[in-house]
Design a protein that fits this description.
The complex is a heterodimer of chains A (112) and B (487). With 112 residues, chain A is of the alpha+beta class. Helix content of chain A is 22%, strand content 37%. The longest helix of chain B is centred in the first third of the chain and has 46 residues. Classes of the chains: A alpha+beta (112), B mainly alpha (487).
């Protein structure tokens, strides 16, 4: 089992979600986050005072998948989330030790 | 006597700011029209008796009905104006300031305005009205109207001959409410609620009441319409409201010192949407503030209404133009701040200047206050958090001085028919009188505020602790959160 953590542009989120649905992945956790890598922020001015805003809004999509689905999911995300510009985001993969379905105590890949 | 056949249009076309014959003729027509119908004016005799009355009795009754008609129109307008001015505090100012502070301090700043709505009202009822408008001393009123004794349906001819004194009293109350509320902008995000309540109570008695009496009260030595020694033209409160609160705000900001983390830590407004709504409510409410200060529903009220509106508009444009020039963009905050600055500056001038000078006053205020808020504040580094001094203190000062320059007897012959009023009449000495009033307002505000701050600080402290400031005033002063988004 692998966890995919994808930080993407908010405007690409709907496309990414639909692409994941199309390959059969429906379980995911989505958070609105702020952050930046190399992307520059912008300056806001309120009554003559300047504020540099360099934490930019992004969407974080997390999902835990059986090993067999991981490559397909990565391909789907890469295809739909990419705009080619700085700020597109990143994907992180990590191994998951255990998954449990709370409703009926199922464990392992059956719980996904 | 011949009763002129007046067309309905002639009632509504009384656009010229004449307060004498035009109003009289209008009311005559009104009375004649209502003559036949069953009368709503309680003082008049029933219609059936009228036809049997003698000519002189008829004239007496007619006179009563005309007076009642005029009173009715004036009172309707004045009650609406009073409501508009209260709206300026709640929710106008509450929203305007509320949006400008950080989220954790939203309720606290709103609560300060709201608390004053309640507190000042009670104080006004007990003793405030009397201190401001009672007596005839040069510096302060008296106690003859304490507990509103003698304040009823009869007009007080010293102040407003056609409306019940109750109306005049409650109208003036709304001014007394908003004036201290303006100060809260300077001390935002770091003032204790308890300390601010005590301070405002004392400030109202020792700073607002004397100044209000001096400028508007009978015998007040700055009173332009009741023969004051240095007649300062202040139609709706440039000195009494804006200079007093603005200068006091500066003193408070300096005394309380800067917010923790200011100016390094970013503290942008948490919701300009709230501020926008508040500013628009202020603009609309200001018609009650300025046009209502005519104390009657007449040509002068119309003139003041227009001057108010025009100054707000031109000031908003001036501030936006300044921003566009400086930053390459006009901002929403700049637009609304400019409008408020223009409204502040036109406050003393509204019933004395014409529409074109009103545009000029607005432009001057927009530009001047923009400079005060962006440049001067940065140079002297005081933390006037919401620019109470930069907009109200500065705007009120420049407005009061420009009033002396632009006042015209054609708009309002306040010194008597045919007597020159301001610079446009050639009476440039009026600017000097304005300066006297401005300096006195500054002086009272400065001295009074420093003394009162010290007293309250010694009694209960004024500033919250650093930890409380970090956690936010909503939670520490009021035990609440403005936004429970997870709920």
């Amino acid at each position: 089992m692998m966890k995919i953590e994808a930080i993407i542009q908010p405007s690409r989120f709907v496309s990414v979600k639909e692409a994941l649905h199309e390959i059969g992945i429906e379980g995911m956790t989505v958070t609105e986050v702020r952050g930046h890598g190399r992307q520059k922020g912008h300056t806001e001015i309120y009554r003559g005072r300047e504020y540099t805003v360099d934490l930019l809004p992004k969407m974080k999509v997390e999902m835990v998948l059986p090993d067999a689905l991981v490559e397909k999911a990565l391909a789907a995300i890469m295809k739909t989330a990419k705009t080619g510009m700085i700020g597109d985001g990143k994907i992180f993969l990590s191994k998951i030790d255990e998954a449990i379905r709370i409703r009926n105590d199922e464990r392992g890949e059956n719980a996904l | 006597m011949t009763i002129p056949k007046l067309h309905l249009s002639q009632i509504y076309c009384k656009s010229a700011p004449d307060r004498g014959r035009g109003t009289w003729r209008t009311c005559l027509l009104l009375a004649v029209m209502l003559w036949g119908a069953s009368s709503a004016f309680a003082q008049a005799a029933p219609a059936t008796d009228f036809s049997k009355a003698t000519t002189s009795e008829k004239l007496t009754q007619l006179d009563q009905r005309v007076t009642a008609a005029q009173s009715s129109a004036d009172n309707a307008w004045m009650l609406v104006s009073a409501a508009l001015v209260l709206m300026m505090t709640g929710p106008g100012l509450a929203l305007f300031y509320g949006g400008l502070v950080r989220r954790k301090n939203t309720l606290a700043i709103m609560m300060q305005s709201f608390a004053l709505m309640a507190l000042i009202t009670v104080m006004w009822a007990l003793v405030g009205y009397s201190l401001c408008f009672g007596g005839n001393g040069p510096l302060i009123g008296g106690f003859e109207h304490a507990f509103l004794r003698g304040v009823g349906a009869d007009p007080n001819p010293d102040y407003s001959g056609t409306i019940p004194q109750t109306t005049f009293m409650v109208y003036q109350l709304m001014f007394a409410i908003i004036t201290p509320a303006l100060i809260t902008g300077a001390t935002a995000e770091r003032m204790k609620f308890s300390g601010s309540v005590l301070f405002m109570v004392l400030w109202f008695v020792f700073v607002y009441a004397p100044l209000a009496h001096m400028v508007w009260g009978k015998g007040g030595f700055l009173n332009a319409s009741l023969g004051g020694r240095f007649p300062t033209l202040d139609f709706a409160g440039g000195t009494v409201v804006h200079i007093s609160s603005g200068v006091s705000a500066l003193v408070c900001a300096l005394y309380l010192r800067k917010r923790t983390g200011y100016p390094q830590q970013p503290m942008p407004p948490h919701s300009l949407v709230l501020s926008f709504i508040g500013a628009c409510l202020l603009w609309v409410g200001w018609f009650g503030f300025n046009a209502g200060s005519a104390l009657a529903s007449n040509g002068l009220a119309s003139s003041a209404f227009v001057a108010t509106h025009f100054a707000a508009a031109s000031a908003a444009l001036a501030w936006c133009a300044a921003e566009w020039f400086k930053n390459g963009r006009a901002s929403a905050l700049g637009g609304i701040s400019g409008a408020v600055a223009g409204l502040v500056a036109i406050t003393p001038a509204a019933g004395f200047v014409g529409p074109m000078p009103a545009l000029v006053i607005g432009i001057c205020a927009g530009a001047f206050c923009y400079w005060m808020v962006t440049k001067v504040k940065a140079i002297f580094k005081y933390d006037d958090a919401l620019d109470a001094f930069g907009v109200h203190g500065a705007g009120g000062t420049i407005g009061a001085l420009l009033t002396g320059a632009f006042a015209q007897q054609a708009i309002n012959p306040i010194f008597g028919a045919g007597k020159p009023v301001g610079g446009l009449d050639g009476h440039w000495a009026q600017v000097g009188n304005q300066l006297v009033g401005v300096l006195i307002a500054w002086g009272i505000a400065l001295v009074g505020t420093i003394v009162l701050l010290k007293i309250v600080d010694m009694i209960m402290g004024l500033r919250v602790t650093t930890e409380e400031e970090e956690a936010g005033l909503d939670i520490t002063q009021h035990g609440e959160e403005a936004y429970n988004l997870e709920a």
